[in-house]
Amino acid sequence: MDILALRPVPAAAVLMAITRRCPLRCRHCSTGSLPASEEHPGEIFQRFAGTFAPGDGPRLVMLTGGEPLLRPRLARSLAETAARGGARTMILSGMFFAPRVPPAAGGVARIPPAIDAAIDAADHFSASLDAFHEEEVPRESVFAVMRALLARGKDLSFHVTGTGPGDPYLRDVTAAIRREFGDRVPMLVGRVGAVGRARTAALAIPSLPSLPAAAGSEAAPGAPAGTASRTAPPAPPAPPAPPAPAGTAGAVTASEAGPPAGTGTAGSALPCAMAAWPAVGFDGTITACCNQDVVDHRPVPGHLRLGHAGTDDWDTVRRRCLESGVLRALRTYGPLWLAGAPPERGYCETCRTLDVPPPAPTPAAAFMERQVRDLQLAGGGTGFARRYGCPPYDHLVSLGHPERDHDF
Ligand code: SF4
Hints:
Elements: H1 2-5, E1 13-17, H2 42-49, E2 60-64, H3 72-84, E3 88-93, H4 113-121, E4 124-130, H5 139-151, E5 156-162, H6 168-181, E6 187-191, H7 197-200, E7 279-280, E8 285-287, H8 292-296, E9 305-308, H9 314-323, H10 325-332, H11 335-339, H12 347-352, H13 363-388
Helix pairs in contact: 2-3, 3-4, 10-13
The structure holds iron/sulfur cluster (SF4).
């Protein structure tokens, strides 16, 4: 909730994809990661983190990949450097290190020491869990590690991904997490986007063992009633889907860095909250959002490039993020409005090919910018999850939060 509530705040956080490598081969991987994928010297990231100054740095640093815990010493060092600069750190992991054979009842999962130290150095730890990850790392192994971390008071969450509101897997796994962790661990539920390996892979949902529906488990609105088994009858038709999300560089959500839910006509306003947090890509290039196509393709469109971690400092990147007229207009009106384009042209696609002069910085424009930002802030973390995640599950981001709204 706290992290997502910051999502529309420009330069409140920075994402750092510290390696594209990953030992897992999840079929839906948005970054197309492999064990030998690109990886650049850690000094690039370390140098940039070293430019954060207390009171002037980002409030949050999110370490992603690939699999950031393939570089546990770098992750730990970045978390410690960020802390000296006044920032908190979050790590998002695919849990490759979880023991394949979970400990016996009452036992505690062993976490490799260097990875354990990196997790310890971070303020928040989030595990990716979805049907495709479960083909690589058993759910019970992930749960065992999360249990061990929770027992020592670690602040945790899950990033859960499915094919949409009617996906029976989502109903099953969210109920299992709630049951296992007694509603103390929040989860952000997103949708698989057509990006990375998911762009070309046949994403038939893996067949998981039949799991009994949890007693007292919550059936998400829009999810099919009855058994949670993977062999359940097909889900009823989902409500009209918003444009498919376009992937992520391991962002705050597995589905975030894409278009928000919404409809529109030609040139309609649909603000992009993603144009708020700078993203440091695998090679150190800093982009204005973490849309995977933006992060991956070179050259980065001029209006979406904020600099390079090897040469620029945080203050410069932050100023570019805050002051760019095009980025401010993207955050206020979105790309379709800026380009006068119809929705069918594609939200992020329109943005990537945008070629417009920055709108004039009039008092009215500044007023509109504040209004849109404040509307999104008023929606809080749940509002963000509703807009960019999988809406029937948006309330799950508040599990365990001290100000959780119990009147769902
Ligand atoms: S609309 Fe532009 S800034 Fe927003 S996520 Fe898409 S590509 Fe990034």
